[in-house]
Write a structure and sequence with these properties.
Length: about 400
């Protein structure tokens, strides 16, 4: 097989890239190791920044999102039994975010791709990227029980944190930056209308909690739990009781309970691989960087990377200059590090480390009180939450 751009992975990064390239008249092939139902049902992110919304619309994947997505103009910070709302449009000149699950973004992009896009092969596992530093990089892959080779002009590794693309970059040119956290998120999906119409980020002495939603009838809630926790250690009653404690306020706000349909634990990690390009191999999304989900940045960063790549390749085809392609890694990393910083700040602002001292507890409360009382501090949060522009 031969194509211009070989894309490994059909998560949000790979699927959107295939769309953007197809719109620019550039052919590609997407290889995805899992089957279609698995990719469409994998519960992950749910917050789309304004820039992501605009890109999905322009790619023709915004119709259902605009119908079913929930526009959110703010979040609530909850601490010390008090509530503070951060009003995004008022602080950012009109920007907001949208709640529309990653599962739905993937379903929309897959449907478009299968209807009129370039080939998208499910159950096609990339085994290795070869000759990345030549003009003819190749992806060796297994599909329908046999090995094959995809010859490309460019390979884009959109294969997530555990993928193979990153491994093709020699250790001598790789630098990684990593931080793990001594806690994770126990996340549940529950068939109950959300108890608040915007996301609630709660800092509590017992640990962090987040109230989120997937739709007007489905709640998504998270609890900070110790690293290595097994979701099955928690009964449904224990989860609801702990959520109630952490969301407690001095007013009459109540958390509505409902049947829990899914629960799982997500580890927390910050990670960046530099550079994001080696020869004709480019890394995009979780293949190159991971953020803890507190800042809701993972999916949005993946979108930013592939927009940058598609623009650069289109520009090279139109002008003959490879300046933008050469700048790909540096361009993406500027935004990536801002998202890393913000995700780290939100995580350390709201989670309680197992060895936290009373001094650190007071500092967290002081940081929250500063956001609630200073327009400058609040604006910094609102600008970062609603998104960093793609250069
Ligand atoms: C459990 C979990 C919960 C999360 N929750 C949130 C959240 O609440 N908010 C938030 O903003 N972000 C969240 N994230 C992060 C967000 O979902 C990711 O940043 C986003 O999925 C990145 O998209 P991607 O396309 O780069 O990678 P992925 O979505 O990981 O897609 C990679 C794709 O590559 C495929 N693949 C892997 N290896 C191969 C191979 N060898 N050959 C072929 N295909 C391969 C995989 O099957 C997958 O489909 C979460 C992540 C996880 C893991």
């Amino acid at each position: 097989m031969r194509t211009t751009v070989g894309i490994i992975g059909a998560g949000p990064a790979g699927l959107l890239l295939a769309r953007l390239l197809s719109d620019a008249g550039i052919d590609s092939v997407v290889l995805e190791s899992r089957d279609r139902p698995y990719v469409e049902q994998r519960q992950r992110a749910g917050i789309l920044e304004q820039g992501t919304i605009d890109v999905l619309r322009a790619a023709g994947a915004g119709e259902r999102m605009d119908r079913e997505g929930l526009r959110h103009d703010g979040i609530e910070l909850r601490y010390d039994r008090t509530r503070h709302r951060v009003d995004f449009p008022a602080l950012t000149g009109g920007r907001s975010v949208m709640v529309y699950a990653q599962t739905e973004v993937c379903k929309d992009l897959i449907a478009l791709q299968l209807k009129d896009g370039a080939p998208l092969l499910f159950e096609a596992e990339a085994l290795a990227v070869e000759d990345a530093d030549t003009d003819r990089p190749r992806v060796r892959f297994r599909h329908e029980g046999r090995e094959d080779v995809l010859e490309c002009d460019y390979v884009v590794g959109c294969d997530g944190f555990w993928g193979v693309a990153r491994k093709a970059i020699p250790a001598s040119v790789s630098r990684t930056f990593e931080r793990t956290y001594p806690f994770g998120w126990l996340g549940i999906l529950a068939d109950v209308p959300p108890s608040h119409d915007e996301l609630v980020y709660a800092r509590h002495d017992r640990g962090f909690a987040l109230l989120s939603m997937r739709s007007p009838s489905v709640s998504r809630l998270y609890l900070q739990v110790p690293e290595g926790t097994d979701a099955e250690e928690w009964s449904d009653d224990e989860i609801w009781a702990e959520l109630e404690r952490r969301f407690e306020t001095d007013d009459d706000w109540r958390l509505e309970r409902g049947p829990i349909t899914q629960k799982s634990v997500t580890p927390m990690r910050s990670y960046v691989h530099e550079p994001m390009r080696h020869g004709r191999l480019f890394l995009a999304g979780d293949a190159a960087h991971i953020v803890p989900p507190t800042g809701a940045k993972g999916l949005n960063l993946a979108v930013g990377d592939v927009v940058t790549f598609a623009r650069a390749l289109t520009d090279q085809r139109e002008t003959g200059s490879s300046e933008l392609l050469d700048a790909y890694s540096a361009t993406c990393l500027r935004r990536v590090w801002q998202a890393e910083r913000f995700s780290y700040d939100m995580t350390t602002l709201l989670h309680r480390a197992p060895d936290a001292t009373p001094f650190e507890d007071r500092l967290q409360l002081a940081r929250l009180a500063r956001i609630a009382s200073s327009r400058a501090a609040e604006t910094e949060l609102a600008e970062a939450y609603t998104g960093f522009p793609v250069d």
